[in-house]
TrEMBL record:
Pfam families: Oxidored_molyb
PROSITE patterns: TAT
Post-translational note: Predicted to be exported by the Tat system. The position of the signal peptide cleavage has not been experimentally proven.
Protein source organism: Pseudoduganella chitinolytica
NCBIfam families in UniProt: PRK05363.1 (NF003767)
Keyword annotations from UniProtKB, A to Z: Metal-binding, Molybdenum, Oxidoreductase, Signal
Gene, per the UniProt record: msrP
Protein name: Protein-methionine-sulfoxide reductase catalytic subunit MsrP
Function according to Swiss-Prot or TrEMBL: Part of the MsrPQ system that repairs oxidized periplasmic proteins containing methionine sulfoxide residues (Met-O), using respiratory chain electrons. Thus protects these proteins from oxidative-stress damage caused by reactive species of oxygen and chlorine generated by the host defense mechanisms. MsrPQ is essential for the maintenance of envelope integrity under bleach stress, rescuing a wide series of structurally unrelated periplasmic proteins from methionine oxidation.
Length: 324
């Protein structure tokens, strides 16, 4: 098999090189155990989601848990986190990314870091994986649509990368630009958003230790539908601020226009901090449904200010109703 061990403990083949056999073998083992009656009822679903769908599909990514920056909440089941997604480049239904993102080729991949920096850089994936020690951080992710998940991400603070490019004094904001390739992404043919998907943060938000440059989840490299091979995760903001499959990071002087802000400026502001006191014009943001905890009461958790993260000092003196 074409598995090469990198110093970081990362297996480096294309997932496609190992998937069929690994999945096949897991399924065979699973069927054997099931026939032998050695799998109890509750373990069955867990096996299905973890083994048949997950393990062996994406290369492992070793990382040490950072408990100080991890939520105590119970992580969402892997199967839910990989089959209930927003990734409009692959369609607008929650099930579309899992079905359609197989055509994304996450290797080879480069990210160019440019704009108001002294040392612009183009990094390939292996350089990104080696840039700083990988950590596992369990974060809450709250979608503006009113649902949330809890995901053990793997990555390191974006600030690690930022300090290497040395932003100039003129750099005030950071823009994240996702891949937009019609050949790999069927949804890019539709006009739901203007492509490429673009997001942005103020420089101090980008430098906040919680802002994660993300290369994996659940101990493995990112599945395509979750934004392979590299995305950001900004846990105190609505999920759409966390751009997937990033190819460019640009440091700029002026607040960038973002894809969602362009499509509906009155609904999606630049900041988009999770805020139960500021409703979306078409629905309340006071509560949320945790995926995997569904019941006939579809919304049962109170949404926490900044999604429960201690980041208020970034916004001292700002009217968050105005800067929504
Ligand atoms: N490029 C790109 N990034 C994206 C999106 C998208 O459509 N395209 N959707 C966003 C939204 S609305 C959410 S809620 C999160 C979902 O991330 P997840 O599928 O990994 O949970 O990704 C965000 N990043
Ligand atoms: Mo979202």
């Amino acid at each position: 098999m074409l598995i090469k061990r990198s110093p970081n403990g990362i297996d480096l083949p294309f997932p496609s090189e190992i998937t069929p056999r690994a999945v096949f073998e897991n399924r065979r083992a699973f069927i054997r155990q099931m026939a032998a009656g050695s799998i109890a009822g509750g373990a069955l679903l867990e096996m299905l989601s973890r083994e048949a769908f997950a393990q062996g599909v994406n290369p492992k990514l070793a990382a040490k848990r950072n408990p100080a920056l991890s939520a105590q909440d119970k992580p969402t089941a892997y199967h839910d986190a990989t089959h209930y997604n927003n990734f409009y480049e692959f369609g607008t239904d929650k099930s579309d990314p899992a079905e359609n993102a197989g055509t994304l080729r996450p290797r080879p991949w480069t990210v160019s870091i440019e704009g108001e920096v002294r040392k612009p850089l183009t990094l390939d994936l292996d350089a990104l994986l080696k840039l700083a020690p990988l950590e596992e951080r369990v974060y809450r992710l709250r979608c503006v649509e009113g649902w949330s998940m809890v995901i053990p991400w793997v990555g390191y603070s974006l600030s690690e990368l930022i300090k290497r490019v040395e932003p100039t004094g003129s750099a005030k904001y950071v823009e994240f630009i996702s891949l937009a390739d019609r050949k790999q992404m069927p949804g890019v043919a539709s006009r739901v958003l203007d492509w490429p998907y673009t997001e942005g943060l103020r420089l101090d938000e980008a430098n906040h230790p919680l802002t994660l440059l993300t290369l994996g989840m659940y101990g493995e490299t990112l599945p395509n539908q979750n934004g392979a091979p590299v995305r950001v995760v900004v846990p105190w903001k609505y999920g759409f601020k966390s751009a997937k499959s990033i190819v460019k990071i640009r440091f700029v002087r002026d607040m960038p226009r973002t894809s969602w802000n362009r499509s509906a400026p009155s609904e999606y502001g630049f900041y988009s901090n999770v805020n139960p006191a500021v409703d979306h014009p078409r629905w309340s943001q006071a509560s949320e449904r945790r995926i995997g905890e569904d019941s006939f009461l579809s919304r049962k958790r109170k949404t926490l200010m900044f999604n429960g993260y201690d980041v208020a000092s970034l916004y001292t003196g700002m009217d968050l109703k105005k800067h929504f």
